[in-house]
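Honest question from a wet-lab person: if I give you the sequences of every part of a complex, can you actually get the arrangement of the whole thing, not just the pieces? Trying it with mine:
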Amino acid sequence: MGTEHVSLEAISILSKIPIYSVLFTVIPLFIGWQFLKRRITPENESSESDFDKKLKDWRPDQLVPDISDDHPSLKPMTVSSRIGKYITIDGNECLNLATHNYLGLVGSKDIENEAIQTIKNYGVGSCGPRGFYGTLDVHLELEKRIAEFMDMEEAVVYSYGFSTISSAIAAYCKRKDMVFVDEKVNFSIQKGLDASRSNIKYFKHNDVKDLERLLLQEKGLNKKNSNNVEKTRKFLIVEGIYMNTGKICPLPELVALCRKYKLRIFVDESISFGTLGTHGKGVTEHFNVPRHEIDMIMGSLEWAMGSIGGFCVGSSFVIEHHRLSGLGYCFSASLPPLLTTVATKALDIMEEDDELFKTLRENCSTAHCAIKKSKYFECFSDMKSPVKHLVLKMLFKHNEGALLLGEISKKCIEQKIAIITPAYLDSEREQPTPSLRLCISSVLTSSDIERALNILEKAASEVLM
Amino acid sequence: MATTQTTLLEQSCSFLSSATHCTLNKKAQQPAKQHNGFSNGHAAPILLEGSNGIKTKSKDCQVKSSKNKESFEKVPFITAALTHFGFYVLMLLGFINQLLFTPNVAKEKFRVGYAPLYENFEQFYLRYVYRRIRDCWNRPICSVPGAKVTLMDRITKDHGWTFEFTGKKRECINLGSYNYLGFAESSGPCAITSIDTLRKYGCATGSSRLELGNLPIHDELEKLTARFLGVEDAIVFGMGFATNALNLPSLVTKGCLVLSDERNHASIILGLRLSGAITRVFDHNNVKHLEQRLKTAIKEGQPTTGEPWKKIFIVVEGVYSMEGSIVHLPEMIELKKKYKAYLYLDEAHSTGAMGKHGRGICDYYGVDPRDVDILMGTFTKSYGSAGGYIAGSKALINYLRVHSHAHTYAVSMSPPIAQQIITSMKIIAGEDGTHDGAKRIKQLARNTRYFRQRLNQIGVIIFGSEDSPVVPMMVYLYSKIGSVVRTLTTRNIAAVGVGFPATPLMEGRIRFCLSAAHTKEQLDYVLDNIEELADTLGLKYSRKSRNPNPIEYYSDSETE
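Yes, you can. This is the full assembly:
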């Protein structure tokens, strides 16, 4: 009884304690306990030895996977001559239908003298990025000339063709932007898209209807959340002539869609610059599309111009942005002066001589007609494109076809005609169909082309029969 | 004289003691005592040691490096506050400016109703903050970027919106270009051999290495590079930036972890972004932080799955181009071995310029280059050319020959560019039969030491290692970047200013790049001008002790 009373009293005493004082005692105790727990437990030996065991057991992969010594990429063909109309491959002096030298400017003596003079004036390297005393007067001159040639406001010059395209795309397309891209775009565009981390939609190769379908789909989605419609930037990225197929993009239709759905359009004119159009101004001249319809034209100095580097040209509003945001522009050493003046000289030649483009066009169609007669090859490339992909008519598995084409190419080189299969990496988004790639140049004559294709045909019959 | 020195040292010691986790006090005091024992005459080297102890402040007191010559002096509090304040004032003025005046820039035509192409803040920053000191960058030159460089004078009549050339030229002492060994020359063996090669092979190939762009000169260059660096094999590319950006993605894949220094170059960051691997950043050159990161990575494994990482890469640079610091390579190699990680070393600014034989950071520390898994470097700087290389084991290079983006798709290196590298590398290695290369390396080291010691004496804060030819001088305030660069130009000195966003907001700086081509007279001229400027603009932020004796510039015959 007594004890019961006592316990009841104890409880009643407890109930008189105000709640806040309970909190005052409990919270410090809790914190103290946590603190002690942390001090005692974490650095104890068991977790340390656990870690050691983990480290001991961890077997990281080797630095790189092994490559067998006889991989064909380890022994590329060696060229021991200047790469002009003729090219000496592993000792065979061949007629060159393999390297991109559409206007034959690589062999030009004028250009060579210009380059020598530049070394004498400026040395070889530029020793700095554009921002830090790496901008030479010759760079400004080349940029001005390219802009004038294309009849646009401003141009920037990059020091490497591949990085031009990938940097330019990543400078504009950002996370959350929508980018519509042709499924067959070349590797440098693919890398630019990877770097942009944008939302990317691929449409079927050169298929305007498929693009419109995607655009409509996109519009439908956006109707639901109308806030985003005006904020999301939308881009279309295409090539003038596709490196991997040799087809010309249907620019007028694409531009019409861009205006309708408010897309900005970037065209990679690496191949089409200096080859299409009466004055070699590219795909816009070819289709007679006003140049202000295109937001940015990206090009290469490496193929038609016979130099190294790349450029972007467009309105000042767009192009200025490169000078602080183009990664490959800001953070790379500028283009060596000698390669800059070579490009300027090439522009001089292109401006003086329209015949070059005419001869090139004729050569392209000669080659196109000759290929049409072939028993073994099909060519889906455009007639006016200097890049022609020859695909086997007979169907083979991917690897088998590639091997046979390699054989044919080897046979051609032995018979003094340089025709090659293009090199692709496994990391391409979609493996291009195996093909032989012809690069037509204005220095070839129609008899050269016919002779070359005859030998190709013969080589093919030997390999395939 | 001696007493003022001591008080200065004491001051810096008391400053240090306020730093919490650093126990450098004793170290710093010791040399001070030693100094008291000496009279003025020969105190220089000892004082230097003393200042070393003080210099290595908070960041590197944990590192037990044999070559700990780094300095990252902390910004004085008032300067920090002023920097912030100054920047906000600039922003505010810019904002008012934007309200009142329409910008004098090109507008987009024919694109009404489109989503704006640029972010608003970015536009504002460029137009109203950056524009004020825009004239300090992108300055066109019209000569060889050698010891001297000719700038094309330009003026602006509308506060930096546009520029006009006056047609005048200004010959400046060049402390802006990366011409460490002075190979930016328009005559001499490099230019002559390059012209010969140009005559033989033309200037471009129009084809990638895997197709038909593979010339004997490329093989020669690769063999020479591998031999020079003391590794099995090397592969070369036509652009330095692309060497990082286009090869990292094939080396580092999904399921790998990359631990990357916070001050790594944009090309590395781009390459890592393209790779799809997970990247974690560690504090600049901080070995302890790196070790923590390594431990956590191994302990926790991959996120979500918890599986162990496939590989762990540590990506660092040899000499950091904005910090002037040299990587703590021996410690990194130790860590890499202990934790089974792989080491990627970007030697863009160190190859040629560092080490007794000019072979880069490994040479500088006397480390076996084969301990670094992937050696990357560029030919733009010390070799006065363009392009880049990756060197390492045969297996690594073979893998790249098969999988590298640049090797497969991008055009091969231009022959005269390759020749310039071959000739200059042979000179550096002494394979040309002269001592020219050794002389240049020595001259660069001597210039570096002299220039840095004199700057310390002047009392400005400079970052980085004593041996690094990249010398960032801190000016902190945004507006001071502009005024220093402009004033130096009027005195015919070309230097580079770097500010936000290339550096942290607080750390505006002027960067000097030394070259073997600079003479003592040129450096003296520059230093005298900096001293004068430092007085008028208030750049003497340093609280370190100053060497009261004239700094010696050793002549050729003297040993150090």
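Two things worth pointing out. The mean pLDDT of chain A is 89. The longest strand of chain A covers residues 234-239.
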